[in-house]
Write a structure and sequence with these properties.
Length: about 525
């Protein structure tokens, strides 16, 4: 009975844990790493074809995104998840495959020109379609036998539609041990979905620590805060551009905006438009429609019972095609644009940022976690300019963050979750947090609350029968490629170009004769060097 930590150790993404029990090899989550990598993850200790089963906490890519790669490498077993998670994975993994293939095609066009070797996509649609046939659906609180000696139950994680903490009972040689994998622990009082379900007993707990170093603060009045941002932006004549995760966060925003519209809180802008510009977000919203019963909270279900859809309202526009997406930026009326990806790393949001970041009248509103190294984090941290599609874009728009909107429990929420166990577990494994955060949260559990807790690195192996470490994983930093700085001469050239642009602007309104001579001089210089 051994547990090996592979991903989401001292990092937030790439969740993956490997359980050996009763002669079976089981993965809990198989997530993709996103954003900036800090440490190297160890590979699976066995071949993919030797894995007997997979348990999935929820559909987010940092928990499910490498499942098609596992299939590509030879996995042929089942993937167990809640029915809502299965439905969401059907669209999210297809979308991921499309991104993998498109990125490979782009890289290979560049490689052919430069003579570099062929780049193979991480996985393709065929791998994904095979993966989707392996899903097996379960409902919350249904206890089922995974294999002889191994039983499993999914309980509501309160993080995303269908998200779960997973209870696993393992019986070997007459001894039963219970391991709980928290998945992502949900923030309380989120709209649409229930609060996390608290578990009362376990021998071992593997728990996330994303916000283990801070609280979200006093719960804000989300409707008022969002209303104020929309009103001020529209009054300036700008757009509210919201980089949003297609699954979960987008639906929460629609829920809030429906309330704002139904109460007539925005003044002077009529039936303003709200664009959901993400095919995946549109499909995800449909899945929310189809999975209300058993997943929506009491407030949302009260609306449903009165014949009102919590996610629909007048002025809502769904854009599917690329042409429809492009047309949004030719609509001069103030509007809300909700688009993916949530961290601005890919997708249509980057086009909307290109068209709005430079506009002082617009607002870029962040509503979710931004990992270190992502474009979203760079903008949120105060960058004065960013590069999009090879073009430097000035950041003149108002940059705002809707405080407290997070699908993750904060520090107090995490402590409440682990404090719900009537008896302290034999050991708590702290994962899914940035390096200092996971260490700090672990230290608090140990020093202040008396838990036997560790924050393992990738490659760490524990014997769950004896509660002893078998292999101690080591922090192996990712070796980052050195980025060659432009030569000082080239920097001078760039500065000269900026100076030229400034001179051109200062000469606006000058005599036509002088401007004509200036233009001829610039064109003559460009003709000489444009070779």
């Amino acid at each position: 009975m051994k547990l090996t930590f592979l991903g989401a150790t001292h990092e937030v993404t790439g969740s993956c844990f490997y359980l050996e029990a009763c002669g079976k090899h089981i993965l809990i989550d198989c997530g993709m790493e996103q954003g900036q990598d800090a440490f190297e993850n160890q590979k699976l200790p066995v071949m993919a074809g030797e894995i007997d089963g997979v348990l999935l906490t929820h559909a987010h890519m940092d928990h499910s995104g490498n499942l098609p790669l596992l299939t590509k490498q030879g996995y042929k077993g089942n993937i167990h998840a809640t029915s809502a998670t299965v439905a969401l994975c059907d669209i999210m993994l297809r979308d991921s495959a499309h991104i993998q293939v498109s990125e490979a095609e782009w890289k290979n066009r560049k490689n052919r020109r430069s003579g570099n070797k062929y780049y193979e996509p991480v996985y393709d649609m065929e791998d994904t379609l095979k993966t989707l046939t392996r899903f097996v659906s379960h409902e919350y609180n249904e206890r089922f036998q995974l294999f002889d000696g191994i039983e499993v139950r999914f309980v509501d994680g309160g993080h995303l539609l269908g998200s779960a903490s997973i209870e696993v009972w393992v019986t070997e040689d007459g001894v039963t041990k219970k391991i709980v994998f928290s998945g992502d622990i949900g923030n309380i009082n989120q709209p649409l979905i229930n609060d996390p379900q608290y578990i009362k007993e376990a021998d071992y707990v593997v728990m996330e620590s994303t916000y283990g170093d801070r609280n979200h603060g006093e719960r804000p009045d989300y409707i008022k805060e969002l209303t104020d941002i929309i009103q001020a932006t529209f009054d300036r004549g700008g757009n509210v551009v919201i980089p949003s995760f297609a699954v979960g966060r987008t639906q929460v925003l629609l829920y809030y905006i429906r309330k704002i519209k139904s109460q007539g809180l925005i003044k002077g802008h009529g039936n303003f438009k709200v664009y959901v510009d993400s095919p995946m977000a549109i499909k995800s919203t449909q899945i929310f429609h189809e999975n209300m019963t058993g997943y929506f909270d009491q407030e949302a279900m009260e609306l449903v019972k009165r014949g009102k859809n919590p996610l629909l309202f007048s002025g809502l526009k769904a854009t599917i095609t690329a042409d429809e997406s492009k047309a949004i930026n030719f609509d001069e009326e103030p509007k809300i644009i909700i688009s993916a990806s949530g961290m601005c790393e890919a997708g249509r949001i980057r086009h909307h940022l290109k068209h709005n970041l430079w506009r002082s009248e617009s607002t870029i509103l962040f509503v979710g976690h931004q990992s270190v190294g992502t474009l979203g984090r760079i903008i949120l941290d105060g960058a004065s300019e960013v590069k999009l599609f090879g073009e430097l874009i000035q950041v003149n728009a108002r940059i705002r963050r809707l405080s407290g909107v997070s699908g993750h429990a904060d520090r107090d929420g995490l402590l409440k979750w682990i404090g719900s166990y009537e008896k302290k577990p034999d050991r708590v494994f702290v994962v899914h947090g940035e390096d200092e955060v996971s260490e700090g949260f672990k230290d608090h559990l140990v020093n202040e609350l008396g838990y036997n807790a560790v924050a393992p690195y990738s490659g760490t192996v524990y014997d769950l029968m004896t509660n002893e470490v078998m292999i101690q994983g080591q922090p192996i930093p990712v070796i980052k490629k050195k980025v060659e700085r432009a030569s000082s001469v080239y920097e001078r050239l760039l500065n000269a170009g900026r100076r030229l642009m400034a001179v051109i602007k200062r000469n606006e309104g000058g005599a036509n004769k002088d401007l004509s001579k200036f233009t001829d001089a610039i064109n003559s210089l460009c003709d000489k060097w444009d070779r």
